[in-house]
Every structure is written in C-alpha cells, then in structure tokens.
Amino acid sequence: MKKHIYIISTLVASTLTSLVALSQTGAVMVTKWGEFGDKPGQFKFPAMLAVSKDSNVYVVDQHNHRVQKFDANGNFIQMWGKFGTGAGEFNYPYGIGIDSKGNVYVSDMNNNRVQKFSSKGDYIGSVGSYGTGDAQLKYPYGIAIDNNDVLYVIDAFNYCIKKFTADLKFLSKWGSAESIGIKLYMPHEIAITKEGNVILSDRQNHRLAIFSKDGTLVKRIGEYGEGKDAKAGQFSEPHGLAVSAAGDIYITDRYNFRIQELDGNGASKAQWLATGIFEDDKYFPLGIATGSDGCVYITDHYAHCIHKYKL
After folding, report:
1. 20 to 30 A from 190, CA-CA: which of 11, 79, 173, 222?
2. Which residue in 307, 192, 292, 191 sits closest to 258, CA to CA?
C-alpha cells in the first residue's frame, strides 16, 4: 500500500512541476468561446482579430463574411456584414485594425478593397478595386495602423506594402517580391513595432522580417524548425503578429501549434502550445492580438473559436 501511495505522490508532484514550468515560460488559457456555425457567437474559419482600447474584441469571421464584436470575456455584443460586393458587405475578409478613434478597418480580400467602419459597425468608406494603380489592390491580406493612424496594407499580388491615411487616401508604397522575401506567397500578416518599424510574417521562408516604415530592411528573425524538437526562435509558417504596449512581439507559429513571444530585439521570451489546460487536442492558431490588460487573444481557424491567455 505504501508503495502505491509513493507512486501516486510522485505522479502528482511531476504534474505540478510541469504546470509550474508552463506558467514560467508561457501562458494559461483563461477562457475560450465560439463553435462552428453562423449564429451570433459562432464562427466559420475566423481569421484575424483586434482589441480596442476599451477591451472589446473584433473578429473577422471569414467564411461567414462578417465581423463580430465581443467584450473581453467573450460575451457577444454585435456583428455586421454579409456576403456581397456592396458597401458593408464582404467576400472573404481577412485582416482587421483599429485606429486611435476606435474606427475599424477590414481588408475585404476577394473584393480587393479595405473598408472602414465605426466601432458600432456603421459603414464609413472604402478604398481599392482590382488593379495595379496606387489606390487599387490585388487581394489585400493583413493590415496594421500606426500611432499616427497611418494604415499599412499588404497588397499581396502587387507584391508591395501600401500606406493610406485614416481617410483612405493613398500615401506611398514600397517593396517587391524580392525585397520582401517572397517564396511562394506574400507575407500574410503585418504589425507595427513600438519604434514604428513594420514586421511581416514571412511565412513560406519561416521567419519574420522587420522593415523601417519606408521599406528599408532592418533585420530578419528566425529559421525553419518543426515538431516537438523545434526550438524557440524557429518557426513553421509563422502567421499572425501582434505587438504589446511594452513592445513584445507575439507570433502564431501555426504548424508548431504554438505561440511565441519575443522581445523588441527579437530575442525569445516565452512560448506555449495553443491548448491551454482544457484539452489535449492540437489547435491551429492563426490570428493574434493583445489587450491593454496584457492578455493575448488568438483565433483557432479550424476549431472555429477564440482563446484568451493570461501570461
């Protein structure tokens, strides 16, 4: 009997040690919400997401062709959009960003435009149509907004980054297939560092690329690594990007089913599997955003839900 007690005690101690190690190097899932469907609070392949200053969470519900808005605990507030080409309608939207006034910008990918809305979902305006002109786009992917409310758009099949004012007026563009680092596809996601530089997730090259706001390459970070032996700083198709108020960089390392945290210089700080403590299944982390409370939110593209983590 004493032998059995010793074995059980050892197993419990080992489990507690593992949980302590996880808390030291990663994060704990505090909640999650959503499931497959088209009702409020349900998703069909959620893509990118953004968190406003008042801690509301905006999610691009891609295959439902809409945006959903929640509070920080996942309680549904409202939604807008449907499939179509009209104002406020979407055709597989992808990226999302919020400016200093709380306005919401969405890259309407297959309609080749970016649309702007109020925080309540009221349509304000749009920019873009299919083409190569300065104010035209070919399948815009990720978008980001800097501290001056300048909008950065990945113009995927024109192989460049385009900049617009908050009123959606063209400012400038930079980049090429070679300079940005294309292998098979353009980078999908973009974020702005605390210093005002631009980060791209160079997913097919399994790395990040940091540029100045005008397109000068600053550095590249990371290399290929996949599976249980993948080290910190190695990636397998990094996708979503977010920068915290402190300047830390968060990446969804999607084929390693984990989140990585780097400091502003690109040094590894933490990593954790996108499984929380509730399930043992593998997830498919895609979009990522940080809140003013320091929590990290991700979209699980294939499980059709949102995870919220506390570091």
Report:
1. 79
2. 307
Dihedral sign (CA 257, 45, 33, 308): positive
Strand-pair category, 223-224 with 234-235: parallel
d(CA 287, CA 48): 4
In whole angstroms, what is the distance from residue 136 CA to residue 112 CA? 8
- Rounded Cα gap, residues 143 and 108, in angstroms: 11
Among candidate residues 136, 139, 52, the one with its CA nearest the CA of residue 97: 52
Residue 70 has pLDDT above 60, yes or no: yes
Q: Read off the pLDDT of each residue in 210-232 and give the average, rounded to a whole number.
A: 95
Residue 29 · residue 276 · CB < 8 Å: yes
DSSP string, 115-159: EEE-TT--EEEEE--BSSSTT-BSSEEEEEE-TT--EEEEEGGGT
Q: What is the DSSP letter of 38?
A: S
Q: How confident is the model at residue 69 (pLDDT cuts 50, 70, 90)?
A: very high
**Mean pLDDT lowest for which of 11-15, 146-150, 228-232?**
11-15
Average pLDDT along the chain: 90
Using alpha carbons, select from 189, 227, 225, 183 the residue that is nearest to residue 205: 183
